[in-house]
Amino acid sequence: MATIYTEDILIEKAKTSKINDVDFNNLSFGSTYTDHMFVCDYENGKWQTPKIMPYQPISLDPSSKIFHYGQSIFEGMKAYKDAAGDVFLFRPLDNFNRMNISAKRLAMPEMPEAYFINGLKTLLKIEKDWIPTAEGSALYIRPFMFATGKGFHASPADAYKLVIAFAPSGPYFSGKVNVLIEEKYSRSANGGVGFAKAGGNYAGQFYPTQLAKDKGYQQVIWTDDNTHEYIEEAGAMNIFVRINDTLLTVPTSDRILDGITRKSILTIAEAEGIKTEVRKIKATELVEAAENGSLKEMFGAGTAAVVSPISGFGYKGKDFELPELENTFGQFLKKKITDIQTNKSEDPFGWRVKV
Ligand SMILES: *Cc1c(COP(=O)(O)O)cnc(C)c1O
Fold first, then answer.
1. Both 152 and 183 in a single domain?
2. Containing domain of residue 50, as a range?
């Protein structure tokens, strides 16, 4: 489909800024929003003129298909500001490409790179002062697209809205989590939408995660939908396991999200001489490794937390604790990746993009 677009963006500035109401020393994650948002509508078979406008509520017809059939996708990325005030994105084209992979799977229109990347960069320039600089902080970027087209019939909508909104955020989470290896529920299935950042994937995770919380765990380790024998993801993050001095993660598939943090960690680990393996991992292998002392670390990896360490896991009614190590691969790799993101180190892989 030929998409006709111009790179021009209509910009409507907010009359006043909310920035002075924000305590930048006490930012939680993703709950404070900046003054403006980027909006682009897809109507009549094409993307319309993109706009930047004051951050505001969106009004929708009750028959909009997002409410009924859940055509909704999103991305999560971050912008960083260094000591000199320069602004950087981290591998933004990967997020853009993944958003279009998600769009395709949900029968939603793919968006042109110029709209997404130029829109994002233009909005970042306007909201530059909102980018926090404290350790572990960043401007969280949430691009999302949903069906605005009307009708109660179950078919793809004929209209969509793409929005990019910003949330200045402090560190995502700092403590270790105790996780439950799930044996009944699945996050995703063969041939399903697990590889897409589709809103419904997360809705389906909440209930099993609540049940795990009731049992005293903070998070669920998802297993394959067929046998529940192989670990797949850590909540909404990719999973890493260290057995002796080898760092392992599982191969991506149509059930597993192809995380940018995951692949960056693998690349950095290899460059740093850490032995890595990408292969299937059985829950029973973790149990054996925990029992014989070779299981050293487990952590989740994703943009929000970067690395989220796991203190122990439950499986088939038994609990296993991980050792308290002085120098973990998790901490080491988190520092390496955030130093690249925040322009504190060289960028040997060419991942940083100056805005
Ligand atoms: C977003 C996400 C990840 C992490 O992806 P990043 O690109 O590293 O942020 C992993 N798993 C799931 C299910 C996700 O939604």
1. no
2. 3-169
Atom of ligand 1 nearest to the CA of 304: 9
Which atom of ligand 1 sits closest to the CA of residue 300? 10
Nearest CA to ligand 1 atom 5: 259
Same domain for 147 and 220, yes or no, is no
Residue 234 and residue 270 in one domain: yes
**Residues 200 and 138 reside in one and the same domain:** no
Q: How far apart are CA 339 and CA 225, in angstroms?
A: 37
The Å distance, Cα 235 to ligand 1 centre, comes to: 9
Instruction: Tell me which residue has its CA closest to atom 14 in ligand 1.
Output: 236
- Ligand 1 nearest atom to the CA of residue 238, by list position: 10
225, part of any domain: yes
What pTM did the predictor assign?
Answer: 0.95
Paired with 319 in beta bridges are 314
Q: Residues with beta carbon inside 6 Å of ligand 1?
A: 76, 197, 233, 236-238, 257, 259-262, 302-303
Amino acid identity, position 264: S
Assess if residue 272 is contained within a domain. yes
C-beta separation of 252 from 258 below 8 A? yes
- What are the pLDDT digits (tens) for 143-191? 999 999 999 999 999 999 999 999 999 987 668 999 999 999 999 999 9
CA neighbor of 236 nearest in space, from 260, 202, 212, 189: 202
Is the same domain home to 11 and 159?
yes
User: Which residue positions in the chain have pLDDT lower than 70?
Assistant: 1-7, 173-174
Please indicate, yes or no, if residue 111 is contained in any of the structural domains: yes
> What confidence tens digit (pLDDT) does each residue in 288-341 have?
999 999 999 999 999 999 999 999 999 999 999 999 999 999 999 999 999 999
Going from the C-alpha of 144 to that of each of 69, 133, 165, the distances in angstroms are 16, 25, 8
